[in-house]
Design brief:
Layout lengths: L6 H12 L4 E6 L5 H6 L5 E7 L2 H13 L6 E5 L12 E6 L7 H7 E11 L2 E6 L48
Length: about 180
Amino acid sequence: TRRCADPQQEAEPLLGESGFTGGFIVELGSQTGELAKALRQSDATQVHGLVRQVDQLAKIRKSVRQSNEYGNIAFEKFSGSVLPYTDNLVNLFVTEDLGEVPLHEVLRVLVPNGVALIRSGDKWEKTVKPRPENIDGGSHYLHDATGNSVAHDEVVAPPRHLQGVGSPRWSRHHDR
């Protein structure tokens, strides 16, 4: 794939190659924010851009606010080798340059079957995080054709850590 001048023309083949239909997209090393905006093609998508050049951040954020996509698309500064996400969160990871971020760190944040698209020269290399053998996948609404809703999953268990925090944050809250 050759580098396109139009971010929309570049985003469509990336989304097609990845099989992405919705979820959380991360663009590492965003320089203009245009590719991130083009990757968000439905309301079922949130995009987070990580910007290495801090002097570009205000300009990128202004562009997103002007497009009325702020909230669904957001950017923040990034440096280092550890991505600011919890395990198994990102559905699609896109970057033209990994920089100091190792591939195993990208795989850590990807969901099972999540896709990383990393530019290598004029081509995009696709890496898919393998689905662990001990995660059961039901083929029907109630797991399988028997109608039994119990899966044979060895990963689901009582919570051991906090994955994310939503509201209300306190049990004595006016929303409860």
